[in-house]
Amino acid sequence: APPLRADRPGVAQFAELADMSLSGDITVEGEITVPVGAASPDEDFSTLDEPVRETIMRDLKAVGKKFVHVMYPRKSSALLRDWDLWGPLVLCVSLALMLQGGSADSKEDGGPQFAEVFVIIWFGAVVITLNSKLLGGTISFFQSLCVLGYCVLPLTVAMLVCRLVLLAGSGTVSFIVRLLVVLAMFAWSTLASTAFLADSQPPNRKALVVYPIFLFYFVISWMILTFTPQ
C-alpha cells in the first residue's frame, strides 16, 4: 500500500488523533449501568395505573370548576385551557329531557322532541364557532364549542325553575315569573360566553361575533319560555 503523505488533505488530522492518548494520572470513574426498576423523580405521572374511581372523580371536579366559572363569569382561561365536551353534553341532554313534553307518539306534545333540541344546540354552536374562526378568532374549534356548551348552564337552570313553576299552574302570574327567570338566565348566558370569547376576537369584529351568540341563546330561551307540558 502507498505510504500516507502528510501533505494530503486530512492525513495530518488523522496523525494527530493517532498520537493522542489518556495520560496515566487521569482516572475515569462512573457507573454506566442503570437498574431496570429505577424511576426518575421527574417522570410524568401515568393515568394507566390510576384507579378508575380517581380518574372519574378528577374529571367530575374539573367539570364542576367550569360550572363555577360560568355561574360567576369573569375573564378566565380555565374553559379555554382545559376544554372538554363532557359538561356541554350533560347540559344538552338535561335540557332536551326537560323540554320533552310527553311521549313520542303524542299528537298534543307541548314541547320539541329530544332530537330537535339536541340538533339545535349542537348545530348552533358549530355555526357560531365557524363564524368566529372565519372572522379571525384565535381559539380552536373545540375550545369555542366548550365555552358555548358550558354557558348553556344558566338556561338549563331556568328550564328547571320553569318546570317547577308550571307545576303550580299556568296562569298569568306563572308566565310573568317564567319570563323574568328566562330573561335573567338569557342575559347571564350571553354575558358569560362573551366574557370568555371576547378577547379571542379582533377588536373591530367583536359585534359580528356577539350577534350570533345572542341569537343562539335567544332561540334556546324562546323554546324554554314557550314550553307547555302535556
From TrEMBL:
What would be one Gene Ontology cellular-component term for the protein? trans-Golgi network
Q: What is its main location?
A: Golgi
Could you tell me where this protein is found in the cell? Answer: Golgi apparatus membrane; Membrane
The transmembrane residues are 83-102, 114-135, 147-169, 175-197, 209-228
Coiled-coil ranges (or none): none
A Pfam cross-reference name: Yip1
Q: Domain Yip1 spans what residues?
A: 70-223
Question: What membrane topology is given?
Answer: Multi-pass membrane protein
- Origin organism is Crypturellus soui
Highest taxon of the source?
Answer: Eukaryota
The family database entries (PANTHER family) matched by this protein are listed as: GOLGI MEMBRANE PROTEIN YIP1, PROTEIN YIPF6
| BP terms from Gene Ontology | endoplasmic reticulum to Golgi vesicle-mediated transport
Protein name listed in UniProt: Protein YIPF
Keywords linked to the UniProt accession: Membrane, Transmembrane, Transmembrane helix
State the family named in the UniProt similarity comment for this chain: Belongs to the YIP1 family.
